[in-house]
Write a structure and sequence with these properties.
The protein has 260 residues and is mainly alpha-helical. The protein contains 12 helices and 2 strands. The protein has a two-stranded antiparallel sheet with strand order 1-2.
Amino acid sequence: MDSIVGVLQNQYLQRCRVNQRYSLRAYARSLDIPVSSLSEILKGKRPMTRKLRLKIGKALHMSDQQIEAFEAREHGNSSRADLANSEIDYQQIAIDSFTIISEWYHYGILQLLRTKNFNPDNRWMARRLGVTVPEIKLALERLLRVGILHKNEEGTLIDVTDGNTSHLKSDFTNEQLRGFQIQALHKAIHALQTVPITQRDNTSMTFSMSKKSIPFAKKEIAKFRRSLTRKLEKLDEPDEVYQLAISLTPLTNIEPEFTE
């Protein structure tokens, strides 16, 4: 089962994967705790006080509810023994949902299921997505617990949401979802450097517009994403997993609105 220490470890591994020069000291600085304390926590040599758990949870952009869920699990059958099973299950789902949203490879697994050459072997999935076998194993456990994946009597994995997991994101703030988008951009940069141009597309346009048109632009981009992905999924039998990342960002410094 995961714990807040497990989330700390996963976040550190993810940051190191994106930036091989990323250090434990930099990670501790982002959490605003001493590097010696972080090292002991990751090694399981230092117990987590409620104050420290709250501080780390906030630094990882968790909500108060999610931090409470971790606290309940840390204490197990002691101070939280009176929690109803349904509440504990809800807390577990909240924890799993946070991790699924935070780590891109959960969605990668769901899309791998749709490819014609899918192999349920954990090593095969790890190799295809460029992550570790333990990460795949834990990710599958989370997806099964949340109810996104189901394993039938034959042991076949089935995505019961048919790829629609938007309900998970409704419980998270823009700040919490930002990490997922950062990962998407890093993956795009990596592909730009390593994948032949015949197997990818990276283009951009620079133009002027009114910032009042942003709501309209976001609706049109959402419609385009849905339309294009539906067409591509049906055009031919899938054999790879791609990510479509569209960015509409200002190049000018946004000026504040002034009213007379």
